[in-house]
Amino acid sequence: MEDYPLVKIRMIVPANVRHRSGGNIYNEKLAEALRGLGAEVSASKVDGGWPAGTAADRDRFADALAGGDQAICIVDGLIASSAPSEIEAATAAGRRVWVLLHMAPSGEDQVEVKALAAATGLLCTGSRTAAAARSLGLGNVHLAAPGVDRPSKAQRSPRDRGAAPHFIMVGALLPNKDQIFFVDALARIKDLAWTAALVGSTKADPPYSAAVKERVARNGLEGRVEIADELSGPALEAQWLRADLSLLISHAESFGMVVQESLAHGIPVVVRKGSGAIEALGTHGAGEAVDLSAGVGSLEAVLRRWLGDAGLRERWRAGAEAASRALPQWEDTAQEVLGAVVPS
Description:
The structure is a single chain. The strands form two sheets. The chain has a six-stranded parallel β-sheet, with helices on both faces. It has a six-stranded parallel β-sheet with strand order 9-8-7-10-11-12, sandwiched between helices. It starts with 7 loop residues before the first strand and ends with a helix. 43% of the residues are buried. The chain contains 14 helices and twelve strands. The protein is globular. Helix 1 (22-36) packs across helix 14 (330-341). By secondary structure, it is of the alpha/beta class. Helix 7 (179-187) links the parallel strand 7 (166-170) and strand 8. The protein folds into two domains: 8-147 and 328-341, Glycogen Phosphorylase B (Rossmann fold), CATH 3.40.50; 166-326, Rossmann fold, CATH 3.40.50.2000. Helices cover 42% and strands 17% of the residues.
């Protein structure tokens, strides 16, 4: 691995996403890994109504681009997408402005396209995002897929095989994540032994969080479905240690970092067919991408099949263990980023 002791980078990230999100985690882990390779990284959190942003918000962004002596800026796409003029001014002044894209550009927002075209280059966290950017004719596109923190062997102690199988869904309680769909599927398999935990911010969308809690109560699942709110560190590790199957059934995902986090713990995953989470799931047989377009019965069927088939559970578990050994680390991500943004 090459070190970069003379590289100075300013990362500019949104301050208005206050829950634990994939984008926030990626930004923090990337900065940490870049520093680990010797780069000097400063982080500027820019408040504002991103991704739309007001004129005053964009002025703050322009100040962040101009501040300090770092020639290289890496800007979260949530901010960059509404500020083509500010990016153009910064590059004209000699800054190299790289946009970190966590979500694929649709091409329908011409302001976003103009902003991305004005950047020095694009760092994409998933191959679908990179492909979408290239399809718009945008150049200098680089893939910088997320890494993982591999838990120690002590953290991955054997689960209690005598306990009922335990499902986990990690992510803020948001309509896109579709926790209600999951709860409705669980309500259909109350005749089987299982427990479940929903781990994620209940403050990101309070009305939806309240609706999830109401659906759990309506289905009589309070004793079997835990709503754990947002967790990190040892508390989150404790939740992973209980889990036997993870689910990410978001309607839209560019990648799905939590899938890799699950696999790093040796836990297989069910994802929604057609979403970018398929890329994170990989080809190790560590779960399944399921077509959920037919309704909640399609998820019920998958859960019943998994609960009733010990051989399937073991095959998926073995696939997750194999995937865990092949996952990239954050240092690999940082190397990809530095290889792109540092002039040769």
